[in-house]
């Protein structure tokens, strides 16, 4: 089940909200757990046991860590931690990387290890990282142990963030699981945030994503330079509005239920460096890798900082998918972050117009998205050659205007505007939503209502409705 489906919008979500607020407070966590597992089972009924297994692994290792911290020394505690981390990683490896690992071994060595062709459970990377953060934070004594199984299971399986994030850490929500209050203002904010995310997804991401998919589905010999750039730019906007739209919807639903999630995006396409881009893009993932991988490797304090950065970005690429193009995508970003650190350390004091920094960052990001979107590395490299005029297509069947009709051009314009922090600027200059007078609130609520109606119109008249990050 996806947030942008009619079954979710008009059946699942209204029923969950209705029963949630009809129930007594002491029964709400159990109800949300059942609803969350049902939500997951709707699309992946045979893989519910995977998330239940992940819940059990982390719950038991949490209890074991708590007991050992009271009775045993550092060595035993560290063994428990490493075993818990290994258990999580083994579950993720089996379902996500088993075939990739052995197919790579076969290609490199000529051996013939049999492949299992394992179907990837939706959201396994997200809920595995949740479990890892809990076990590690418990070992570091940053969070108290959760002995109530239902409360812990709800943390792991809470449906707004279950299958595509943001990656919610136990340290950020454990108090809310025990005690939360949802005011009318909170609920109204959640509705507005959800509708804005739905608009991003249904109207912008789906429109531009359809164009990107059509272009990337063609053989490279049918791409002209212009068409290749159209595909890359459309995908650049699609992946941002698809994923940030999902995050907005997740944050909005959680707020309707009394939970406050941290932000996951901060207008990344205004960045003037790749370092800044990763402070603004998928914030929950980049901060996770910083806290649980980069700093433990030594961070900026010890060891080779550049090696640490490369390791982090290789793993970042691998987290997104078991394909070499994802690894190269991670390396691509990591290399530019290293170059930027070297230039900053050199302190050259070269004055460059800010717009050139933005153009440089945009080019690096767009090239990276081609590596990310392409079905394989070979296709990506040939596609990039065509983009930059190093190779020419021989069987171009359509002109660029076949893809750039009036609706697509208009949506590209809307995407450019929506990528700018206009809403943040308005909030800082004219005040927050709650501070406006009744007439202003009426105008804003009318806009949200009209946007929701427009989303429904788009939804019922089209069949294209994927979520990119579901497969991670």
UniProtKB/TrEMBL annotation:
Protein name: MBOAT family protein
Matching InterPro entries: Ac/AlaTfrase_AlgI/DltB, AlgI, MB_O-acyltransferase, MBOAT_fam
Membrane topology note: Multi-pass membrane protein
Keyword Transferase: yes
Organism: Paenibacillus baimaensis
Top-level taxon: Bacteria
Major location category of this protein: membrane
Transmembrane segments: 7-23, 47-67, 79-98, 118-140, 303-320, 326-343, 355-372, 408-426, 447-470
Family stated for the protein in its record: Belongs to the membrane-bound acyltransferase family.
Subcellular location, record wording: Cell membrane
Keywords, alphabetical: Acyltransferase, Cell membrane, Membrane, Transferase, Transmembrane, Transmembrane helix
């Amino acid at each position: 089940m996806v947030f942008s489906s009619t079954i979710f919008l008009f059946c699942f979500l209204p029923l969950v909200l209705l029963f949630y607020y009809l129930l007594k407070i002491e029964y709400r966590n159990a109800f949300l757990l059942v609803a969350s597992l049902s939500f997951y089972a709707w699309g992946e009924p045979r893989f519910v046991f995977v998330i239940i297994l992940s819940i059990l692994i982390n719950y038991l290792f949490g209890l074991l860590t708590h007991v050992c911290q009271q009775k045993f020394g550092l060595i035993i505690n560290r063994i428990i931690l490493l075993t818990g981390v290994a258990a999580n990683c083994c579950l993720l490896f089996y379902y996500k990387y088993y075939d990739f690992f052995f197919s790579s071994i076969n290609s490199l060595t000529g051996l013939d290890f049999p492949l299992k062709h394992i179907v990837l459970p939706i959201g396994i990377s997200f809920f595995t990282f949740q479990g890892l953060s809990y076990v590690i934070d418990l070992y570091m004594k940053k969070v108290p142990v959760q002995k109530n199984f239902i409360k812990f299971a709800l943390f792991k399986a809470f449906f707004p963030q279950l299958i595509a994030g943001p990656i919610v850490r136990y340290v950020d929500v454990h108090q809310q699981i025990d005690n939360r209050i949802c005011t009318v203002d909170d609920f109204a904010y959640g509705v507005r945030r959800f509708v804005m995310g739905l608009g991003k997804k249904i109207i912008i991401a789906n429109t531009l994503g359809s164009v990107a998919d059509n272009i990337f589905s063609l053989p490279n010999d049918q791409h002209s330079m212009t068409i290749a750039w159209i595909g890359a730019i459309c995908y650049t906007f699609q992946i941002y509005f698809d994923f940030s739209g999902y995050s907005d919807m997740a944050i909005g639903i959680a707020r309707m239920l009394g939970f406050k999630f941290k932000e996951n995006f901060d207008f990344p396409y205004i960045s003037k460096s790749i370092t800044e881009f990763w402070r603004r893009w998928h914030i929950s993932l980049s901060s996770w890798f910083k806290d649980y991988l980069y700093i433990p490797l030594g961070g900026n304090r010890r060891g080779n900082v550049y090696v640490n950065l490369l390791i982090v970005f290789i793993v970042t690429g691998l987290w997104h998918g078991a394909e070499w193009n994802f690894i190269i995508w991670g390396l691509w970003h990591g290399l530019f972050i290293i170059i930027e650190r070297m230039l900053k350390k050199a302190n050259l004091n070269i004055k460059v117009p800010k717009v050139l920094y933005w153009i440089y960052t945009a080019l690096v990001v767009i090239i990276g998205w081609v590596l990310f979107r392409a079905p394989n590395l070979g296709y990506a490299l040939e596609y990039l050659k065509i983009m930059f005029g190093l190779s020419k297509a021989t069987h171009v069947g359509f002109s660029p205007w076949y893809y750039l009709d009036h609706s697509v051009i208009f949506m590209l314009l809307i995407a450019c505007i929506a990528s700018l922090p206009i809403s943040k600027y308005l909030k800082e200059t004219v005040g927050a939503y709650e501070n406006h007078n009744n007439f202003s609130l009426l105008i804003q609520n009318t806009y949200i209502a009209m946007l929701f109606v427009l989303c429904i119109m788009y939804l019922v008249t089209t069949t294209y409705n994927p979520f990119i990050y579901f497969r991670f």
